[in-house]
Amino acid sequence: MATKIKWGVIGCGGIAARRTIPEFKKMVSNAELVSVMDISAERARAVAQQFDIPHWCSTEKELLRQSVDAVYIATPPNMHCRQTIQAAKAGKHILCEKPVAVSIREVERMQAACRKANIKFMLGFCMRNNVYHKKARELVKAGALGQMVMGRAELTCWFPPIPGAWRQDLAVSHGGALIDMGTHCLDILEWIMDTPIVEVTGFQDQRTHKYATPIEDTSTILVRFGNGAHGIIDNYFNVPDAAAQNSLELYGTKGTLIGQGTIGQDPTGKMFSILQSDAVGYSANQVRNVEAQRQEYRLEGIGLYGQMIDIFSRCIMDNTEPPVTLADGRHSVAVVLAIYEAIRKRKVIKVQE
After folding, report:
1. DSSP assignments along 149-163, one per residue
2. Which of 2, 108, 275, 278 is the most exposed place for a label (fewest CB within 10 A)?
């Protein structure tokens, strides 16, 4: 068995050049990046030179001819299905950015291709790797918050009209703030509470920015989980970056857990809990002086994107199931499609798997 998994990158602009490749080169010891591909040959060449990568190219076909064991697909979502099928046919294991695809039918085609080729697929829900989110999951699973009542996840940014930005082109992105950022928030809440979203509704608007296509810059979603808990997912392209809280809030019958600045590309943030394990009676005064019960968590995190590469490389080397699969991706697509349907119909919609 090889001591390092050889990787190629399909789509080396955007998140790949900004986060994944730098973290790959800096922190991953069980993998080697040997080739990058982009439809812009100039960009591929520049990234290869910047990060000392031995090979670059401008077509998937050429990259898949290289001696690589796995590929990281970091292209717009309307390309994921085709590129996954190409990579699977070439016998390459696949790590793919979210959203995994733009329809259930596309996911089914991806599943069939990966199954036929007997290769592994992992979906890039990297925000599970935040050390505070791992701690939150641990506390919820241990029952520290009691019965879960509500979870909220917020991820926002300032994203004005930008010529050529694919996220602002509905034909490419298939949505706005929800499909781009909300997919992370939906997944984080489901993963931490270990229960799927089963019903959805909400509101969306293109309220501030005048994009060339009708994508939402304002998205506020209400969900019900399989365990009966409620959830709020709010994603906005019209809140200044410096003002965005990117927060996680978890409420249960025994207390509250608040993450501040934990939902995002950085492995940072902070978190505190207010827990009350003993049963208490009703108090008409509703005293909220809880400083004595507040616990701060101070944890050291490492790069979320580098962790993805490390985790998936180990899965390949050890022949184990990746932590986020195409089945998870299928569910994520089903939830997002149900939300967009609920918005159109102004109804509560059940998630159809």
Report:
1. EEEEEEEE-B----T
2. 278
